[in-house]
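Dear colleague,

Following up on yesterday's call, I've attached the two folding results inline so they're easy to grep. Please treat them as preliminary; we haven't cross-checked anything against experimental data yet. The first protein's sequence and structure tokens come first.
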Amino acid sequence: MTRTEVARGAAVDRSADAVPARARWVPPWRNPWRRPYVLASITWLYILWSLLPVLIAVQFSFNNGRSRSVWQGFSTQWYCCAEGSIGEDPSLLLSLKNSLILGSVTVLVATPLGVMLAMGLTRWRSRSSSVANGIAMVPLVTPEIVVGSALYLVFVNLYQLIPLGRPAMLLGHVTFSVSYVLVIVRSRLHSIGRDYEEAARDLGASPMRAIRTILLPLLMPSIFASAMIVFATSLDDFVVSQFLFGDASNITVPIKLYNAVRASPTPALNALATILLVASFLAVLLAYFGLRAARKRGGRSALEDMADYG
């Protein structure tokens, strides 16, 4: 090969390497590293579509007139101090009071039970422990209408000493709420491990003292988060409460909204729904901060702790 041919070959190689950027341009739909604009747009459209009815309902709770479809100006009259408002309607106040009492008592009962169950299942080492874990998760995967109808039949036919009303509603809410506490607290127990507790035992602490002084402070953010989730779930529950509420003196906010929306509703119902929405949102927000505090202590996210649960 002569020097001229070698020079020509080198020139061809340099020209191939110097392909202009326009020739190497890749269409956006073929670039795997592009920003997911389409997916992000669909996601935001779905979020807006889901929130739009809620925002409209909240808006008309501040309507200056009785219409729930025509905006007549801003006013807070449907919250207090006007005829037909929440503050002046005994039935609305009663439903709000029942929901808050039922949610609070459910938290006080379900949270300790769920914590004790989580600690017990974490320490249970046998072949039957996996079966017990699966049974404890049944309320989470069972449809609410099945749980509600089953509890209704049990209280009416078997446990007749427990009357329909607040006692039956409390037991029903505790039944499906314990599983939420179990999942959150047991996942946190898996991430903590047994090292801290065993170190306290080596230093002379009794089992109960090690749990009280070492384990419970580490679990406190997760316990608080699970309590807030239980409270929000109890406030929003309709199906189980509908089966077990008994008479009108035990009616809760979701049942009141369902029964009154078919009549001639006023924006007072929107105001009642807004209060329920704000209470549930605050509970979930506090639960988020609780899980965030637990993550800072353990250095792991709640999702990673949940993954260890299985």
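Below is the second protein, in the same order (sequence, then structure):
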Amino acid sequence: MAEWHEQLSDDYRGNETLANIPDIDTLAKSYLDAQSYVGGAIRIPGDEAGEDDWNAFNSKLQEKVPTLINLPSDEEEAKAALYARLGRPENAQAYSVEADPELLNWAYENGLSDSQVRAWVEANGARKDAQSQQSEADLEQAMNDLHKEWGYAYDQNLTAAKNAVLAFADEDTQQFLMDSGMDQHPGMIRLMAKVGATLSESETKGLGGGNQFGLSPDQALTQIGEIQRNAEHPYNNQRSPGHREAVKKMEQLFNQAYPEAS
């Protein structure tokens, strides 16, 4: 036991905590440290404390811990305070981005911050732009393929497709095809072209033009084969009066059968 312990009364001389203090200087330092801690400590108000005491406590607590969120006791008020601290604006109209009002209302009700909504809108816009560009590229490729497929009959078949729509679709249906982009869909154009090809000249009169312009590559090849297999055709008989004309027609058929080479 340290000598200074002998100066203590019997009540404190055997205290285990004091037994670890070797001298008076260490005892003094421990006391001063404790006082300093008490001076900087924040005492929680008791059950009998009034609003002023609680306000002082909250103010001091906020000063010591700036990142602490002080929430009201009411659940809805606490939720609103938390959302506001996290960056939600005062109302749905206060978001700094232009978007569907229903989306902004949903974002506000679910506590999304302004930065969260902005990030979502920008990311969604970028995704839609990428999808639109890809769709345009796919459509362009499909129309190029359709052009190769139909060859010289391309304009004829487009006219036939247009005639079919004009003949059988009412104004609302025509508007739907344009609004939905179906009027540019190669599959729809093929279908309407087949329907339009069944229309007579009298049925297509006044609808945008007739449908006798050319042949698709497959149609041209079919005619070429028929001519080549017909031994009596003028094309196969050089002495025939119609041979020269038949040769010209065959050249036209080959141009329509192989439009890329012509």
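For the second protein, one point worth flagging: DSSP finds 13 helices and no strands in the chain.

Best wishes,
A.L.
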